[in-house]
Amino acid sequence: MNENVASSFYPYGLCVAYAALAALLMMQARSKRFGIKDGTVSYLAVLAIPLGVLCARIGYTLIRFDWMRTKGFSFFFQLNQGGYVLYGAALGVLLAAVITGRLTRQPVSLVLDAAAAPAALMIALCRMAEGLVGLGYGRPVADWFDPFSEQSMIVWEDPSVLYRFPFAQKGHYGWNFSIFVPEALAALVICLILLTRKRRAAGGLAALGALLYAACQVILESMRMDELTWGFVKVSQLLSAVTIAGILLICCIRIPKRERTALRIGGAWALTLGCCGVVTAMEFALDQKIGFLKWMRMDVCYAVMALACAGFVFTVLPLWRRAFPLEEKA
């Protein structure tokens, strides 16, 4: 979220509140399936909301420290002025789950599993609400069909049929693709996947949800034009790559020693790094910064990037299955 959303903050904030409520109700309804103790959802709700907001705000402040410093220290507490990072909010929820697990004396991984699908639902609803504040926009629709651009996807003289929701949203400089829509749909699909998975070792569902979400965000964040950056690096893309690496590391640690072969572990890391390299190359190709890749159009770049993102999932997934085996029926 950027800073220019004060006038629309309250409708957006109300949508976020409803999204949080929907997630908590889903978690409560599924609490017996995971065997979490009574009161767990209440503890998590009380802790996750303030910690999520605080960490999301701190994350934004760290990323845009110089800009925030010009606004003054008090601006940090002007929450209606916008300025949040989704991965920061996720960290806040993770901390809330850790504290909840300690307070209720049950495994943190169990709390995270119970919260995984509800969290995906909340993200989906929050993404859709971004349209209220003019966020989540991509490149101008016309850029994809410009007959005079070497990067254009298709020569289409009149793409005005796409000048409407859910395809695009109107901004200051015309119609831009609504990237928040596929982001919301991706989160919703992840929610459905998590809802239909069989029970695995504690922490398995949360790890799978994080892996799928991070892999999707690598390409979707690339398509956004309003994303925060460190220099030329998009922050959410970088954090998504770190998340994927973190899930891979957890899987490597959890795999039984007899199954930790050099080929399996080394191959997974090599493929993951290779996919990171492909994504990086495609980012440079999109910016026309690599001479021998300037021939690649936007659609080709994003198609290759999508294959790399799928590569992340299919590289880590076999290790995930070994690290979090199916629970045996009593």
Q: How would you describe this structure to a colleague?
A:
The protein is built from 12 helices and 5 strands. The chain has 330 residues and is mainly alpha-helical. Strands 1-3-2 form a 3-stranded antiparallel β-sheet. A two-stranded antiparallel sheet has the order 4-5. A hairpin with a 2-residue loop joins strand 4 (229-230) and strand 5 (233-234). It has helices at residues 9-29, 31-34, 40-63, 65-71, 86-104, 108-129, 141-144, 180-196, 204-223, 235-254, 262-286, 298-323; strands at residues 137-140, 168-171, 174-178, 229-230, 233-234. Helix 6 (108-129) runs antiparallel to helix 8, helix 6 packs parallel to helix 9 (204-223) and helix 11 runs antiparallel to helix 12. Residues 1-8 have low confidence and may be disordered. It has 2 domains: 1-136, no CATH class; 200-330.
* Order of secondary-structure elements: HHHHHHEHEEHHEEHHH
SS element count, helices = 12
When the domains are counted, the total is 2
N- to C-terminal distance: 47 Å
Strand content: 5-15%
Q: How would a textbook summarize the main sheet?
A: 3 strands, antiparallel
Number of E-state strands? 5
**Fraction of residues in H or I helices:** 55-70%
The spatial strand order of the largest sheet comes to: 1-3-2
Label this structure with key terms.
12 helices, 63% helix, 330 residues, mainly alpha, two-stranded antiparallel ribbon
How would you summarize what this structure contains?
The chain is mostly helical and 330 residues long. It has helices spanning 9-29, 31-34, 40-63, 65-71, 86-104, 108-129, 141-144, 180-196, 204-223, 235-254, 262-286, 298-323; strands at residues 137-140, 168-171, 174-178, 229-230, 233-234.
